[in-house]
Amino acid sequence: MKKTGTQDEAGGDMPRAEVQPVPVQVGPEGRTRHEVARLLLEQGPMTAVVVAEQLGISAAAVRRHLDALLADGEAETRDAPRRGPRGRGRPAKNFLLTEAGRARFGHAYDDLASSAIRFLAEHAGEDAVKAFAEARVASLVGPHQDAITKHTDPAARAEALAAALTREGYAASTRQVGVGEQLCQHHCPVAHVAAEFPQLCEAETEAFAELLGTHVQRLATIARGDNACTTHVPVVSTGHPATPGPGSTAPSPGRTARIPNGGKPA
Hints:
Carb_Metab_HTH_regulators, two-stranded antiparallel ribbon, single chain, Arc Repressor Mutant, subunit A, elongated, WH-like_DNA-bd_sf, disordered C terminus, ArsR family transcriptional regulator, 10 helices, H-NOX domain, alpha+beta, five-stranded antiparallel β-sheet, ArsR-like_HTH, disordered N terminus, about 15% strand, 9 strands
């Protein structure tokens, strides 16, 4: 028979209405942790004891998963309200998800952004979408402009741009390819939106060309289904940028570029 009262974490009795466990097949650790997080999302804040009862697994197992969620910043605790005389020991803790914890269940931000830009296009025209894309990328790289343009050659600037993009959540890196550099963005927070509105990618490419002081060529994008957003940055020693290829963006010619340290990062 299921008890209608249980021992709280402080050792005191806490009367509570009967709770029917939710049948869950306990699988790998990740799946069980997801179920713990889901319960906190749907019914939290909750004590570890209540989570264990709801899922039909041991309190020790639940606490292990809760500790992991706490360590990852996906959950937090607060003192549980007492419903009877204060017992001895520490107060029971309620667990609840943080914003990071809620993110594992997804957001509708991409759909909202796409709807907003679609509305902008319908009511203000394509020029308004382009202006929005340019303003967005300006706010993204603008704060890092001095750190990038203090370098005198495109290769060093590309490395500085990669560091700036990484700080903005794009997980970027550079590598030498032939007589140029490839700037790779391994994550794109707006890929879903950019798939519908390529103006976002186009404005980004133009901003990169201006910052790097040479024409650049976008070779691949996550928005088109590629594994990374890859931009080729020519680095030549002839005194003039290479001739722009298809899909490239060229600023004013005449910048002398060289390969620093034999093309290796400093």
